[in-house]
Amino acid sequence: MAKRKANPALKRARAQYKRAKKKPPGEGSRFKAVEAAARASGAKNPKAVAAAIMWRKYGRKGGARLIKKGKAAAKRKKK
User: Measured between alpha carbons, how far apart are the two ends of the chain, in Å?
Assistant: First the structure.
């Protein structure tokens, strides 16, 4: 079996996620990092992949809380 070549985009996306993991959940950096990793892996809809991971990890209430927190932060940032 042939050895697979390393995907540099996937490697960068994983490093981005490692950095984002240190930040508090709900600000969007983790979501963007997971989305980038899914895109680098060849996902057709990387936002859906990231959302599915979030719902599985945090559940219905926890996911809704993170979304609410992120929207409030975006609204404050927009002003």
Answer: 56
